[in-house]
Amino acid sequence: MHDANHSTSLFSRGMLAVIAAQFLSAFGDNALLFATLAVLKAQFYPDWSQPVLQMVFVAAYILFAPFVGQVADSFAKGRVMMVANSLKLLGAAAIGLGFNPFIGYTLVGIGAAAYSPAKYGILGELTTGDRLVKANGLMESSTIAAILVGSVAGGVLADWHIGAALAVCALVYAGAVVANLFIPQLAPARPGQSWRFTPMTRSFFNACRVLWRNDETRFSLVGTSLFWGAGVTLRFLLVLWVPVALGITDNATPTYLNAMVAIGIVLGAGAAAKLVTLETVSRCMPAGILIGVAVIVFALQQALLPAYLLLMLIGIFGGFFVVPLNALLQERGKRSVGAGNAIAVQNLGENTAMLLMLGLYSLAVKAGAPVVGIGVGFGAIFALAIAGLWFWRRKQ
């Protein structure tokens, strides 16, 4: 059954290059966020500007969402990934050289937007069938490892020397660019498509319409968007919560706490893979409600150990909640609009949710709301939103 270019093992040179590039790229993204937050702190930017940093990144994702899928399909994906990583390198270097951090971080966001469909799309070109599932698993594992190591490295290095932290980020992106050179130059998937604005956006918005009209994919899109919007807001909440609740003012502690969430997500995802099928997707809903409850309890903590344990719990609930919803969207989306389009629409939904939630969070901080109060309110709203989604799903 194997044709020549698919008979490669999971650990072919091309696949290893993709996984390595993904690890370095994701490591850079996470380290750079915490290093840049340290820059904002050192330059006395107001607290409410911290989430704005992520908002410019997310806005780049949203603006380029209709086009990046076609870019990934029109050129060799390894080369698209290389250009995207070069943009990230440029952004990190700009922040390191003292340019406005928001402009530098926007460049990184544009690179990330172009990178996403190419990295997922290339797996199907390097391998097929059962190996594709395993390849996706490898990609996710390398991403989660990179998030863990990268965010902690960013915080620890920034405590030691902000300039060094930014230099390491630039070097890591340079490493990703080099890794991309080892990806075999495959033929473009769909060359010769129109680059006029209307045809490009039409197919994307058409895919949006199809997925939003279907009960199952809409349910999945709302669930995953709420989850990632909440996740990214929690990340920034931690940065302001740690000094208030625990009295610790370094850059590293929030990154350790973030790491606990990521470890929990891995455990929850593993449990979901064993306990939930596409037919029993609703089993993941109670975990979604428990995320909100756990956030409320967490916000009221004043000691480090229970904070660590609760964040791990939040991660476990999160992994259990989001993995089945992702699988549902990929499976149903693949049938109706194609996997690439489904991921692009999901990216748009998740990033729009992030933008809205970060905006609300930024406004709450600017208005002077106490951080603990924001945490409790945030958890309560999330639990109610998931409960509402579950109830609505039952009514369907």
UniProtKB/TrEMBL annotation:
Spans traversing the lipid bilayer: 15-40, 52-72, 92-116, 137-158, 164-183, 219-244, 256-277, 284-301, 307-329, 341-361, 367-392
Task: Provide the membrane topology annotation.
Answer: Multi-pass membrane protein
Indicate the segments annotated as coiled coil, or none if absent. Answer: none
Report if keyword Ion transport is assigned.
Answer: no
A Pfam family reported for this protein in Swiss-Prot or TrEMBL: MFS_1
Where is the protein found, in the record's own terms? Cell membrane
| GO CC annotation | plasma membrane
On whether Metal-binding is a keyword of this UniProt record, the answer is: no
Coarse class of the protein's main subcellular location: membrane
Keywords in alphabetical order, please: Cell inner membrane, Cell membrane, Lipid transport, Membrane, Transmembrane, Transmembrane helix, Transport
Entry's Gene3D superfamilies?
A: MFS general substrate transporter like domains
GO MF, one example: lysophospholipid:sodium symporter activity
SUPFAM superfamilies noted in UniProt: MFS general substrate transporter (SSF103473)
Described by its record, this protein's role is as follows:
Catalyzes the facilitated diffusion of 2-acyl-glycero-3-phosphoethanolamine (2-acyl-GPE) into the cell.
Family according to the record:
Belongs to the major facilitator superfamily. LplT (TC 2.A.1.42) family.
Its protein name is Lysophospholipid transporter LplT
Gene source species: Franconibacter pulveris
What phylogenetic lineage does the species belong to? Bacteria, Pseudomonadati, Pseudomonadota, Gammaproteobacteria, Enterobacterales
Which gene name belongs to this protein? lplT
